[in-house]
Specification:
By secondary structure, the protein is an alpha+beta fold. The protein is built from eight helices and eight strands; from the N terminus they run ααββββαβααβαββαα. A hairpin with a 4-residue loop joins strand 3 and strand 4. About 40% of the residues are buried.
């Protein structure tokens, strides 16, 4: 789904897609019953929809979602918005190209980060989809400090972040892209973990090939 197609999606369809992504993440073990959140907006909008707090993530419905402005204030909805609303709002403020944010708790990705191991270009998807993953120092969830830290790293142009001792954040032009980033992070992490558990250093795609790919497709890290 390209950004042009995504911009034609109605708010009702957008809300349905947010709920689909939440269910998929829960079924894949990338979020827990009460942990993880997703938001999205119509491109260019100054408001966004986000998942609620205190609701079972595997069964979130469109009517459960809450609409916020870019300062994190409630515009529409009756439930409490996610505790991470400030982080989502901060990303949208500094990244006009981002229309969807997924915050998950990828166990293998987080496990590697806890061990001081960064995600490496061990597969073509790691190069093509992830490109560069930034590590964000720990800050307590739901705080201004975390929101400001994430905004700082997001402003550098990264598409994916690992929140130390916490989880991951993926930013996309649409929900499908953000969802794919979260999944790819975990796939890469699992591949690295398997190689390391066998006592082997993961083989990476040569730097010259990574650079060639970036040049061919005019991609900035």
């Amino acid at each position: 789904m390209c950004a042009e197609t995504f911009s034609l999606v109605s708010e009702d369809e957008l809300k349905e897609e947010i709920c689909r992504v939440m269910r998929a993440l829960y079924e894949r073990g990338l979020i827990t019953a009460l942990g993880g959140n997703v938001s999205a907006r119509v491109p260019g909008a100054k408001e966004f929809w986000i998942t609620p707090s205190g609701v079972f993530k595997g069964a979130v419905e469109p009517d459960d979602l809450v609409k916020l402005d870019l300062d994190g204030n409630i515009v529409e909805g009756i439930l409490r918005p996610s505790i991470e609303r400030l982080m989502h709002a901060a990303i949208y403020r500094v990244r006009p190209d981002v229309n969807a944010v997924v915050h998950a708790h990828n166990p293998y990705t987080l496990g590697l980060a806890l061990a001081g191991v960064e995600l490496k270009p061990v597969s073509d998807e790691a190069v093509m989809v992830l490109r560069r993953v930034e590590i964000v120092p720990f800050a307590f969830p739901g705080t201004d400090k975390l929101a400001n830290l994430v905004a700082k790293y997001a402003a550098k142009g990264a598409r994916a972040l690992v929140l130390q001792n916490h989880g991951v954040v993926a930013m996309g032009a649409n929900l499908l892209e953000a969802e794919a980033l979260v999944e790819t992070m975990e796939e890469v992490a699992i591949a690295q973990y398997v190689a390391m558990s066998l006592g082997k250093e993961p083989r990476t795609i040569p730097e010259k090939d990574v650079e060639l790919y970036m040049k061919l497709y005019h991609i900035k890290e």
